[in-house]
Amino acid sequence: MQHPNVYDFHLDRVIGELTRIVSFWGKGGVGKTTCSSSAAVWLANRGLKVLLVSSDQAPSLSDILGLKLSSQPKAVNGLPLWAAEIDEDSVIKLWKQRFGEEVYEVVSSFLPVDQEIIDYIAGAPGIGFQFMLWYILNEKNSGEYDYIIWDTAPAGGSLSLLKIEHQLYTHLGDAAKLYMKVKSTLERIRRKKRDPLRLISRWRKLAEDVLKMLSSEDF
């Protein structure tokens, strides 16, 4: 969690280095969007390639920049600056596209469910924040930007969700192992395209990568 003074950035350390992340946290109405926009424009005016993204569920980034934004990054006023607003509907849609089929594959391996379970899980508390952590990590790993400026949703209980991915996937892994021992479903699972335990292990690795990103010097 950072509340930086933009004039303290060491720009000479950025060129040619890994993407750095600056996030603005706090309760609603304290000026996170204004500060994040100012920081993004300041950096872009100095020739740095910047992604400015807001995950506020009542976004005002479009109003501040004077652009109609969506979940797809949009260029801002000829600067090396791209901006995106990811509201609640966008989060659910993007989460389904990226994780929906994988989640269904795992859950359906030990429960008699159809694909409607994807919609149910997509509406679970914490999914939006979990997805944003993946989104930020994915953009960081792409190497497309010098800086990612993240205007977060009002904090509230969000900080307690930082480890929810690791806890969830660890629990899912243990539950799946126990079920397969009891029900002897290994043969049925082998006939599937992918082993759900491997998917869960990959999700757990993703959660560990997210936590590593949050604790790194680049965040």
Which descriptors apply to this entry?
5 strands, Rossmann fold, single chain, 5-stranded mixed beta sheet, 219 residues, alpha/beta
Please provide a brief summary of the model:
By secondary structure, the protein is an alpha/beta fold. The chain has helices at about 30-45, 60-65, 90-105, 115-120, 125-140, 165-185, 185-190, 195-215; strands at about 20-25, 50-55, 75, 80-85, 145-150.
Mean pLDDT: 78
Give the total of domains: 1
State the name of the first-level CATH class: Alpha Beta
Which range best describes the helical content: under 10%, 10-25%, 25-40%, 40-55%, 55-70% or over 70%? 40-55%
Low-confidence region ranges: 1-16
β-strand number: 5
Biggest sheet record: 5 strands, mixed
- Give the N-to-C terminal Cα separation: 8 Å
Structural class by sheet pairing and helices: alpha/beta
Task: Determine the number of helices (DSSP H or I, runs of at least 4 residues).
Answer: 8
CATH architecture: 3-Layer(aba) Sandwich
Q: What spatial form do the alpha-carbon principal axes imply?
A: elongated
Oligomeric state of shown chains: single chain
CA-atom Rg in angstroms? 19 Å
Helix and strand succession? Answer: EHEHEEHHHEHHH
Q: Order of strands across the widest beta sheet? A: 1-5-2-4-3
Going by CATH, what is the homologous superfamily?
A: P-loop containing nucleotide triphosphate hydrolases
As a percent range, the share of strand residues is 5-15%
